[in-house]
Amino acid sequence: MQEKYTVMKYITLFLTICTPLFIAAKEIFNFGDKNVNYIISDTRYPPPPPPVEDAAKMARYIVHYSDWTALAHVSHQKNISGLPMARVYSMSDGPLSNSSGVPYLYTSFFDAVPRDLRVDNRCSFTMSLAEGDYCSRKHLDPEDPRCAQVILIGNYIFIQNNTQEWTFAETALFSRHPAMKTWPKSHHFTFGKLDIKSIILVDYFGGSKYPRVEDYFKAKPLQKISKSIFVEMI
């Protein structure tokens, strides 16, 4: 326990000393916001969530800073055909410095779920702030509405090979899940995405919110660097 406290003390001291220097360097050398956000995100310390009043931005934030999602759909597998099921998949909506809002997956037809989705592509993706350390630092149970979660409902689309979107999906996923580059070619992995039709957000007491899809895509989850970001981190 004493060692853990000592480590945290030094981390806090490091951030306290380096944050003003980093902010000053941004002003002096005119770093672009994308570069700054990439540096912050790449340390695995995303900026704090947006205000709960901005439902669309909160939804985009959760999606962008999530590394995995629970995909739910109706199964067409033997013995469980017609029953609901869910499975976790690695996910990315873009490199850490570039959020598209579109969640991409990398799957193989050796897996029964993508085969199901060729029969009926209706599905949902669920992501939560519980994936990171925000909720644990705030002592929030994953079911606590303040430990925000978003459900994206829509249709799963398999992306055409050798297209611009295929290239973006590859960059989005491989940049955040580098192990994917080593997965066997013989399994014929392919990229896919969720074509979002509706959104359900739970981020505070009082029930679900339903941000419009168009507002979701207009929202900007990447925040400018500020002292408040580092205060929240500490």
Low-confidence stretches: 23-43, 225-234
In spatial order, strands of the major sheet run 2-1-4-5-6-3
State the name of the first-level CATH class of the largest domain. Answer: Mainly Beta
H/E topology pattern: HHHEEEHEHEHEHH
Radius of gyration: 19 Å
Shape: globular
**Major sheet characteristics:** 6 strands, antiparallel
Find the structural class using helix and strand composition: alpha+beta
What's the SSE blueprint?
Blueprint: H1 2-29, H2 33-42, H3 55-64, E1 68-74, E2 84-90, E3 104-107, H4 112-119, E4 122-128, H5 134-137, E5 149-158, H6 164-176, E6 190-202, H7 213-218, H8 227-233
Antiparallel strand pairs: 1-2, 1-4, 3-6, 4-5, 5-6
Organism: Triatoma infestans
Keywords: Glycoprotein, Secreted, Signal
Protein name: Protein creg1
Structural write-up:
This protein is globular. Mean pLDDT is 85; it is low at 23-43 and 225-234. Helices cover 37% and strands 21% of the residues. It folds into two domains: 1-30; 48-218, Pnp Oxidase, Chain A. It has 234 residues and is an alpha+beta fold. It contains eight helices and six strands; from the N terminus they run H-H-H-E-E-E-H-E-H-E-H-E-H-H. It has a six-stranded antiparallel beta sheet. Residues 50-218 form the CREG-like beta-barrel domain. Pfam families: CREG_beta-barrel. Its main location: secreted.
